[in-house]
Design brief:
It is a single chain. With about 120 residues, this protein is of the alpha+beta class. Helices cover about 40% and strands about 20% of the residues. A 4-stranded mixed sheet has the order 2-1-3-4.
């Protein structure tokens, strides 16, 4: 469910916003590829209450949800589907992998700051 997806703070989150009424084979494969490492959700335009929370300018949209240490959404970073070969499995997979890596770096940095007592920059 969307509520469970949003409340899970254990992994980085990616949302695929689409106007399709079904999940494409490629996104099923991506979800399987990153199953234990990244939460990949789908927001369908037909499910407006969920879709509007992410506000994509166009569809399809692939969005990384950036959260603070308390799990509050700070921003969304969009994957650029307009670039050449941007709809390939490898390109999208690499972008998701980069999102995962950055999320881990941020978490590790936050953990180090907590240990040292540093508050870090104000948001």
């Amino acid at each position: 469910s969307h509520e469970r997806f949003i409340n899970d703070k254990s992994k980085p989150k990616i949302v695929f916003a689409t106007d399709r009424t079904f999940t494409s084979t490629m996104f099923k494969a991506l979800s399987s590829e990153f199953k234990s490492r990244v939460l990949i959700g789908e927001a369908r335009k037909s499910e407006w209450n969920v879709f509007q929370q992410y506000g994509p300018e166009s569809v399809p949209a692939l969005l990384q949800i950036l959260e603070d240490e308390k799990g509050r959404m700070l921003s969304l970073i969009a994957y650029e589907f307009g670039k050449p070969n941007s709809k390939s499995f490898v390109k999208i997979s690499n972008w998701i992998w980069d999102c995962e890596r950055e999320w881990k770096k941020t978490r590790q940095k936050g953990a180090k700051e907590k240990k040292s007592g540093s508050k870090g920059p104000e948001l």
